[in-house]
Amino acid sequence: MNTRLILLISTLLLGAPGTACIDADGPRELYEDDLGEDAGTQDMGLDSTSDMQVGPDMALEDSGQDQNTEDQGQPGNCVPNRDGVIERDEVTLRAGLNAKFKVSTRAEFNTAPEEVEGESVWDLSGDFDGDSLTIVELQEPDSFWFSADFPDATYVTQLSADSDLLGIFKSSETGLELLGVASPEEGFTQTKLEYDPPVEVLKFPIEEGSQWETESSVSGTALGVFSLYDETYVTREAGQGILKTPFADFPVTRLRVDLERVVGFVTTTTRQYVWVSECFGTVGTVRSSDNESDIEFSSPSEIRRIAP
């Protein structure tokens, strides 16, 4: 069993770009410059022949897909109402969407919020040591070698900029589930792992007091070697406020995800914070190092936030 590979897979936290975002002056729509034209250059590649069309008077859409069947929560020209509740129809989860994120794996950041005029604020807008730009994109699952094993999959994404492993997801009327993880190619050293039951990554509505838990058995092959281990994900609402990013300031609900992984007789814990915004989904994440003891921590293993 490849322990390093299991560590990589088990510390993922996944979010998806949606159809609109917010700047400091209110709602704005995604333009072509926000999306990037080369879908496969860095992370979670999208077919460059996609019929995606974006203009100044429309939110992101894919004219080559039936949006009523591709995603159960199509917001159209979504305008955030800032009611403190993120409904399913305020986050679009389907193949063909993408966004840019700045990522740092060696920066300091205190996850505790600052209080500004009675509102919680997290500031990820500045430059961090080791920043790199990653394109997060959602890809059609049908063309992959493992598609027959995941017939309910909605989209596939690459897990990180420094690994080619793919996360396999299903979106539904109630949320987003992680079904499995696989390598992009099959062969002697292939990876194909299934979660039983699937991990509930997002569960709607997301609001004050939201909490859910998944206990899952992970089985399959990792780099061609049979692997079997257990994971428990506990996700809870952890504050509302403003997340400042290089792209814009977003009204957000913060989620805290605590992961306990048991491989043989070894238990490892990690923690991750996820900031979710109406109409745009996940706009920032901060992940702890293994076995972090503090609820709010200042030496993360990764910082990720949306960027222009």
From TrEMBL:
As given in the record, the signal peptide range reads 1-22
Where in the sequence does UniProt note compositional bias of the Polar residues kind? 65-75
- Alphabetically ordered keywords of this record: Signal
Please indicate which superkingdom the organism of origin belongs to: Bacteria
Which parts of the sequence are annotated with region: Disordered?
32-83, 289-308
- Name of the featured protein: Uncharacterized protein
